[in-house]
From TrEMBL:
Homotetramer. The gene is pfkA. ADP binds at residues 25-29, 159, 218-220. This is ATP-dependent 6-phosphofructokinase. It comes from Schleiferia thermophila. It is an enzyme of class 2 (transferase). Pathway: Carbohydrate degradation; glycolysis; D-glyceraldehyde 3-phosphate and glycerone phosphate from D-glucose: step 3/4. GO terms for molecular function: 6-phosphofructokinase activity; AMP binding; ATP binding; fructose-6-phosphate binding; identical protein binding; metal ion binding; monosaccharide binding. Its main location: cytoplasm. Residues 8-282 form the Phosphofructokinase domain. It is found in: Cytoplasm. Keywords: Allosteric enzyme, ATP-binding, Cytoplasm, Glycolysis, Kinase, Magnesium, Metal-binding, Nucleotide-binding, Transferase. Its cofactor is Mg(2+).
Length: 327
């Protein structure tokens, strides 16, 4: 028989992402709208284990829609990886009368959520919040659009100085195991090439690309490097290229955590609002162990198992387009 939850909890986990606040707001307001009790858990799974709970109401989430970060704070919790940690987490939920949980996070958070939900037969829904966009079951994750906008704002600035000095810049963007941020920012910023885990770039290919640029009289260039690429770290790549092209002035810039902050874009605010409502409505119709996502403009619920194990799709057409446009 379908058990409808009466008291929902929400937490943010893993790397923070712009738009997480908008998602929390949407969860809290829709829970209130449907007459449910709603509790915020601070510090992700660490707060779940420590009992760091706070009951929320619709006014608790005012003025956060446009704020980066997450007011509930986030954490990476080693204790939640242990059965003892998860037992403590369950005891705290049970003691507080919470009967459903919404986890806003990425692949790691959903792996933990799946294990916890199975261990304790606890109803859990995920909301994809990560700048990496590395989840199957949603076209965009919350934060990805803002992060790429931040990245291209920075790369545009690098472009100015690269052009003044006829330099080659290697720019590292985030993406622990994926090239989504790299590919999208490369296209938007007109980068000469992009090195990411999905395209197995070789040193030979890089040499060929730089030679081609020289022949086509492109004297200032940007190559976007995803941190998770398989060729090597950005300094190794730079040293190799310096050896091959001693006449080129080659510089390295690492954008790093800049990409994780800032006010969310309209796209991320709207996506977070849709997904926060979808998560609560999903719980109310009995969905469990699934992630709410938007694919082709439609809300869909994908089992955690698929969301974390199936590969999020990098569109090879974008790689082809970038090659054509940087001739
Ligand atoms: N195999 C696992 N078992 C239990 N918890 C996990 C597991 N993998 C990840 N988690 C929990 O999820 C948290 C967030 O995962 P992480 O990979 O850091 O971020 P994200 O969710 O953004 O991908 C981890 O710190 C840990 O507490
Ligand atoms: O902030 P930290 O802990 O240094 O982690 C950096 C990692 O987090 C990310 O920014 C986001 O990844 P997650 O959302 O999976 O946590 C990655 O791109 C990056 O590799
Ligand atoms: Mg992740």
């Amino acid at each position: 028989m379908l058990k409808i939850p009466s008291h929902i909890a929400v937490l943010t986990s893993g790397g923070d992402a712009p738009g997480m606040n908008a998602a929390i707001r949407a969860v809290v307001r829709s829970a209130v709208y449907y007459g449910k009790k709603i509790t915020g858990i601070y510090n992700g799974y660490e707060g779940l284990i420590n009992g760091n709970f706070q009951e929320l109401n619709s006014r608790s989430v005012k003025y956060i829609l446009n704020q980066g970060g997450t007011f509930l704070k986030s954490a990476r919790s080693d204790r939640f990886r242990t059965p003892e940690g998860r037992k403590q987490a369950y005891d705290n939920l049970a003691k507080t009368g919470i009967d459903a949980l919404i986890v806003i996070g990425g692949d790691g958070s959903f792996t933990g959520a799946k294990i916890f939900s199975e261990e304790y037969d606890f109803q859990v829904i995920g909301v994809p919040g990560t700048i990496d966009n590395d989840l199957y079951g949603t076209d965009f994750t919350i934060g990805y659009d803002t992060a790429t906008n931040t990245a291209i704002e920075c790369i545009d600035k690098i472009r100015d100085t690269a052009s003044s000095h006829d330099r080659l810049f290697l720019v590292e963007v985030m993406g622990r195991d994926s090239g989504f941020i790299a590919l999208r920012s490369a296209i938007a910023a007109g980068a000469l090439d992009v090195i990411m885990p999905e395209n197995d770039t070789t040193y030979d290919h890089l040499v060929e690309t730089i030679n081609r640029a020289g022949k086509n009289k492109k004297f200032s260039n940007i190559i976007v490097v995803a941190e998770g690429n398989k060729l090597g770290n950005i300094f190794e790549i730079s040293n190799f290229l310096k050896g091959k092209f001693p006449h080129l002035d080659i510089k390295v810039t690492i954008l790093g955590h800049l990409q994780r902050g800032g006010s969310p874009t309209v796209y991320d605010r709207v996506l977070a609002s849709k997904l926060g409502v979808a998560a609560v409505e999903g719980l109310l119709i009995g969905r469990n162990k699934v992630m709410a996502g938007v694919m082709h403009q439609q809300i869909i619920y994908t089992p955690f198992e698929e969301a974390i194990t199936r590969k999020a799709y990098i569109n090879p057409e974008l790689i082809r387009i970038n090659k054509i446009l940087t001739i």
